[in-house]
Design a protein that fits this description.
This protein has 218 residues and is of the alpha+beta class. It has one domain: Glutaredoxin (3-Layer(aba) Sandwich), CATH 3.40.30. It contains seven helices and nine strands, in the order ααβββααβαβαββββα. Strands 2-1-5-4-3-8-9 form a seven-stranded mixed sheet, with helices on both faces. Strand 1 and strand 2 form a beta hairpin. The structure holds nickel (II) ion.
Length: 218
């Protein structure tokens, strides 16, 4: 069937399904070695997800992972033209942080890494990240297509420009929809797949801070 036969509202719905499907596939994939009943991503993914990156922040400055060291991070890969999945995920991130006390909330650095570097300029990201619905202090990162590709590879993020529409201006990007939780050293802690609730994320972040406070965190 051709896209033009479908009602317009189906497009965001399908984009959602694609994002969620990919997100789940990648999340399950971190179980490793093809075993579905594998250890959790938390156990098996530590060394596999994350790593060095060089990108450009929404103020136009070149930054690396070292610029964010010292604070635990919540990282989401998406793009500003995304009709629904990305805004929703960033709102979930904000809602999770809102459930923490202000001091705890301020510990976390939130990052949006664009998977659409052709359109997501630093200027566009600078506007986008100030949305009231998104986490306060959200930092947008973009870069050259090569810089973005390397960062996405480090985080095992899948993305691909959708060919459903021939128009360059209108294209979507299919992408994983996962919130990555990294510790103060940039090491992987947990991946929250697309359907994770703000309350679930908030509890995990709270537990992280408590374990840190009691010295039992690795
Ligand atoms: Ni999206």
């Amino acid at each position: 069937m051709r896209w033009s036969d479908r009602p317009v509202w189906l497009l965001p719905v399908l984009a959602t399904v694609i994002c969620v499907g990919i997100g789940l596939a990648v999340f399950l994939g971190t179980g490793g070695q093809g075993r579905l009943a594998a250890p959790t991503a938390q156990e098996s993914g530590r060394a596999l997800i994350g790593g060095p990156f060089e990108l450009v922040n929404h103020e136009g400055e070149t930054v690396t992972e070292a610029d964010f060291a010292g604070r635990p991070m919540l990282i989401y890969f998406g793009f500003t033209y995304c009709p629904d999945v990305c805004p929703m995920s960033l709102q979930v991130m904000a809602a999770a942080l809102d459930q923490l006390e202000p001091d705890a909330r301020a510990e976390f650095q939130t990052l949006l890494i664009s998977v659409d570097p052709e359109r997501d300029t630093p200027e566009l990201l600078a506007q986008y990240v100030t949305s009231e619905a998104f986490p306060e202090g959200l930092t947008g990162l973009t870069g050259t297509p090569e810089q973005v590709r390397r960062a996405a590879e480090a985080y095992r993020v899948f993305y691909r420009r959708s060919e459903q529409d021939g128009s360059m201006a209108e294209y979507l990007v299919d992408h994983s929809s996962i919130i990555y939780f990294m510790d103060r050293q940039g090491q992987f802690v947990e991946a929250f797949p697309h359907a994770t609730s703000p309350a679930q994320i908030a509890r995990r972040l709270q537990r992280f801070l408590e374990e840190e406070g009691s010295g039992s965190s690795a």
